[in-house]
Structures are given as structure tokens and as C-alpha cells.
Amino acid sequence: MYARDFFHILLGLAALSCTALNPAYGDDALGTGGMTSGVSAGSTSMNPTQGSTTAPDGTTSDDVDPTMTGGGTGSEPVECWRLPLRLTAPFFDDPQAVLEDVPILVDLSAAGPSEADDVRFYLGESLLPHELDLDGGFAWVRIPRIESGAALDFEAVVGPGCAPPALRPAEVWSNGFIAVWHFDRLWDDAFLDSVHGIPLELADGSGISNQPWRLGRYLVKTNDERLTAVDERFDLSGAHDISLMGWVRLAEDQAGPLPWDTVFNNARHRELIAKLPGYRLVAVGGQTSAGNTNEPLPFLDIAQSLEPPEHAVLQGPEAVPMGQWTMVSGVYRSAASAAQCFVGGQSGQPEGVGVEPGGGGQHTLRVGRWLHGGIDELRISDAPRSPAWVLVQSLSMSGTLVEPGRPEPL
């Protein structure tokens, strides 16, 4: 979905020698949202309306108005804009919940697309870490603190040369995850994730969409074949926290009952993501099967295994609508041996599962089995995301969390 060709090529090369998980993942055990151990945000005392410039005589000044300089000539005006932004947080189920260092999506179309060095984000005078996507049309910005129902005003400074020199913090979006697949590019018949470069092998009947949705292109599946990845970092069996998230758009022709799978004597589900043994996150829009009358809700299956059939199924709060992009998530908390399933920002009831994700040393991940439609932004984390965190992510990617103001020239 994102235009990160050079970034992903570097990840692909790095993945050849990478054999261990990055230990600096965020921790959401207390419901804080995790992602608190990201890269440095750089200077936190920069004024977005000032910058060091070089005069024609070679002297420098920190007090020269950057809008009066351009291209290093000191005479041509530079077009610089200030874009006010307001984040209005939803009311969390737990009014005391506080999210820290949360990535949120900002649409820059009001100020026009920008190159990586042409945009900065500020909360007061503090520089916020950000990561541009889609040729500068969108940016992921790391917000230090979000409280229930609270409004937060920050701003983007956009334009060549108007922002002071600063290192651009990277990996705001991918930081804190084991793997993130954007499904916007193919490398040697595989999709690479943006964290470690772990490849998902392309299957027959799968490809990249010709038309983008909100952020870019996505994976399209038209048959029952699954995509697979094999990597030792997927060993999340036993006492491990797990968060699975993905966006899905079920094809309209999937609304009716699916045929019964006579091989495994089980219903054919629409798997968003699964690992055997361990877990399975399923997006269900119609009946689960022709011979099953259970309510057609998505579910998170913990310790999912064919032999022995010991598992716990956690249902979502509502069915996934057909033909509409929806974020589906599942979270397992090992300390409480409890799990929760989400549809968009709606939370299912947390329930004790009584079993841990299965063992067996298998490291195979599968994506999109029996699912016809679109898949995007598939993420795996070993931090248990809180309901407030999931809600903010869903609103952020739906374009309803941040409201831009009127751009103002600087």
C-alpha cells in the first residue's frame, strides 16, 4: 500500500541475516498502547517558524524568516504552509485509559503532497516523529499522549526549505510489530513486510489491486489458495502476548453459505491470518458453512490445532459487512490467559480461554485461506493492544480521528 521501494529493498537484504526479534518492542501490558521504545524524536525545542539560513556573504543567522529565502539564493520566496490539525479522541470504555506514543494517520492533501524533507510536525515547540507514505500524501505521526475524549491541537509545517534542518524519525508505523505487510509491491513473487523483510509467497489467484483504496494498492484474492511465510520469529506458542490486525473487504459473492469442507469435517472460514499451531483470526460475513447455523461473527481462535482439537473461540461483536473495508483484530493476553476480538473499533467481550497457543515448533504463517476479496495492512505484534489502542487505530485509518484546519502561509 505504501511507496517504500527503496526502504523495502533494504529490508529484504537485511532479512537475509536477521535471525532474532528486535527486543525493543513496545509494551502494552498496562493498556498504555505500547510503542514506547521507538526511535529518537530528535530535538524537542525547535520553532517551526525559524531556521538557520545562509546569507549571500556566507554568514548565518538563526533569526532569518525562512519564507524570505529560497533555493539558497536568498532572494526567491519559498512557499511554506502551516496546517493546523486537531485530534479529537473518542471516549474509551475505560475513562482512565491513557495511550502513549501512538501512531496516527494524518492526511496532508489540504497542504499538498510533500517530499520527506519538506514536512515537520509539532506539538507546541516539540518536534513529533513521523513517517511519510504514498509520496507524501499521508504521514504517520507519533502522538506522545492521548486521553479519553480529549482534544489535541498540533500542526504540520509543509514546504521546501521552511522547516529547520532535523533528522526525520523513521519506522513510526512499523515500530513495535513483528511484521507489517502493506501489499503494495511484489519482490520476486513475494510480499515483504516492512519490519524484517519477511516474505509472503504469492499464491495463484492472488495479486495487487489496480485501483487503490484510501492509502494505496492492496492484496486481491480470488480463490482459496493461501499465502505462506516461514520464519522462526513466528514462534509465538505458549506464554506469549499476541495482537493480530488486518483490514479486509469481503467480496460481495461471499455473502452466502460456503460449502462444507469434507476433508477436515469443518466449515470453510475466511481466514485473515493463521498460524498452526497457535491462533487464527477469521473474518466472517455470511454463514460459517452450509451445515452450520451459528451466528456469523468473526472470531479469534486460540491454540487452533487439528490434533488434538483443543481450542478456544472468541467471537467478535458484530459481523463483517460485505464489500466494505473493515479492520478486524484479535488480542491474546498471556498473563490473564484471556483474549478479545474486535471489528473496527467495536470490542467483543474479553474472555478467559483456558488454553495457551499450541506448541510444536512450527513457524509457518498463512494469510487469506478461503478468503475472496481484499486484504491490507496485516500486522502482528507481541504486545497485547488495549481496546482504546485498537479504537484509535481504526478511527485513524478511517480518516475520522484528525481534522485539518485551513492552511496558512508562513
Number of domain units: 2
Helix content: under 10%
Number of helices: 2
- Helix and strand content put the structural class at mainly beta
User: How much of the residues is beta strand, in percent?
Assistant: 25-35%
Number of strands: 30
The stretches of 5 or more residues where confidence is low (pLDDT under 50) are 1-75, 260-265
Q: State the end-to-end CA separation.
A: 32 Å
Rg on CA atoms, Å:
23 Å
Can you give the mean pLDDT? 75
CATH architectural name of the largest domain: Sandwich
Specify the overall morphology.
Answer: globular
The name CATH uses for the topology of the largest domain is Jelly Rolls
Just give the CATH class of the largest domain.
Answer: Mainly Beta
Q: Sheet bearing the most strands, described?
A: 9 strands, antiparallel
Structure description:
This protein is 6% helix and 34% strand. It has 410 residues and is mostly beta strands. It has two domains: 130 residues, Sandwich (Immunoglobulin-like); 220 residues, Jelly Rolls (Sandwich), CATH 2.60.120.200. Strands 10, 13, 14, 16, 23, 24, 25, 26 and 28 form a nine-stranded antiparallel sheet that branches. Strands 3, 5, 6, 9, 29 and 30 form a six-stranded antiparallel sheet that branches. The chain is globular, with a radius of gyration of 23 Å. It starts with a helix and ends with a strand. The N terminus is likely disordered.
